[in-house]
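Annex B. Sample input.
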Amino acid sequence: MGLGTEPLAKEDVMDLLQFAAAMAKAAAMSDIVIHEDLEKGAKILKDSAQDAIGTYKFGWPPLGPDAVARHGDTPLLETGALKGSIEYEVGATDAWVGTNDYKAKWQEFGTSRGIPPRPVLGGAVTHEAGKIEELVVASAAKIFKP
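Annex B, continued. Sample output.
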């Protein structure tokens, strides 16, 4: 294939029909691949968030001595309710990862009453961004592979 100022060889140039066929294939594949990626990505985030609960995997501030004495040094794992409440849903073009546990926002963002932020969902997004990026790049390559 030509680079710089070298002319392209005829076999390196896609004609209009080949281009149209490649775009039709990409369009047909993209809906399937996007849905698969949304499913995989949402599961990665859900699993990561659940796995972090009870650990310091995301670099959260340590629990105070009273909390450790009452529940052990396992942040956010007191009853397991928060961990069990994290779920995901995938639509045709979007995905949702979250919880319906009303206490989760206190943990995620902290409170004015002394609970420091321990972002579970935000931590998962930050921690897994590289995996999600790799997933998207691999899928784009799959869609546009000749």
